[in-house]
Every structure is written in structure tokens, then in C-alpha cells.
Amino acid sequence: MKTLSLKLDDQIFSDTEAVISSIKKTRNRYINEAVDYYNRFNKRKILAKKLAKESVLVQEESMAVLAEFERISHDD
Question: Is residue 31 part of a domain?
Fold first, then answer.
């Protein structure tokens, strides 16, 4: 486990203290879970952006393949 120093805005710190007091969780555990959640959230955003970009790259080829399938199905 890594140790780090963290500076929080006063309001974020106050809100965090109120929440962890209510849910009976340590500050360290709470911040670890928050960072983990935010990492997963951002990984999904990065993946969605990458998939959208790659979808554009293959769009023309996909349309050509679809047209070919339609041509074949009409020939039957």
C-alpha cells in the first residue's frame, strides 16, 4: 500500500467527515473506495470514447459489408 499526502478543499473535507461519521467508515477506507469508484468511472468513459472513435474508423467498411449482405440476400 502506498502512502500519500492529500490536500482537500475545506468544504470537501467537512462533507467527507460528516459522511464517514454517519456510515462508520475510516477516512482512509472511504477515500480508497472513492478513488476506486472514480477510476472505474473514468475507465468506462475512456473506453466509450475509444469505441466511438474506432466505430467511425470502421463505419465505411461496415456499410460496404452490409450492402454486400443485402445484395446476396436479394439474389436468392
Answer: yes
For 16, 26, 29, 55, 61, the CA distances from 23, given in Å and listed in that order, are 11, 9, 11, 43, 53
Q: Range of 64's domain? A: 10-75
Tens of pLDDT, residues 33-48: 999 999 999 999 999 9
Cell numbers 475509444: residue: 50
pTM tops 0.90, yes or no: no
